[in-house]
Amino acid sequence: ETGVTQTPRHLVMGMTNKKSLKCEQHLGHNAMYWYKQSAKKPLELMFVYSLEERVENNSVPSRFSPECPNSSHLFLHLHTLQPEDSALYLCASRWGRRAGELFFGEGSRLTVL
Amino acid sequence: QQPVQSPQAVILREGEDAVINCSSSKALYSVHWYRQKHGEAPVFLMILLKGGEQKGHEKISASFNEKKQQSSLYLTASQLSYSGTYFCGTEIVSGAGSYQLTFGKGTKLSVIP
To answer: What is the pLDDT of residues B41-52, one digit of tens each?
Structure first.
């Protein structure tokens, strides 16, 4: 138990569906991250939120839309995804915007049919 | 911008030592090391900062050569529990002024009896 909880753990969706991934942290952190992990690829940084403000968007397609309503919650809204978007999506949090250790959730395994 | 890790994979017998290397072409603010076991979240091992400060677990050791932008993780007297994929993360200051942490492709370590 890392203090970072992701739901759902598994999600299967069609290309025309709209779904959301949720991340919640109980650690009092003020920075939250979305990473994508595909088979045989490194962890790819998608979005960074610090103090609920998006500070980084790494050329992620607009079919992924993040939302951070408060410092404890982070969402990733998904719509009209492609099969190549199938991956493990990891949420992480830390205190401060630099040099602190990241606490990862167990991830949401997404399959796009 | 992602760091380069080597080797990609290594197999050890219990009690043997291993070194995992990480290098970057960018000037680094810090280097992170994480371990991920199959089906689990990545877990923090160590941070090495510019200037020599280190934070991490007592049984893990690592080095950071700031001039060469290289880091090495030292695993000594390996145990079966050391098995997993080790990720190096390098932190730089992005063009937008935020601190961006990107990961290498990982090194798969297998410890056998």
So the answer is: 899 999 998 877
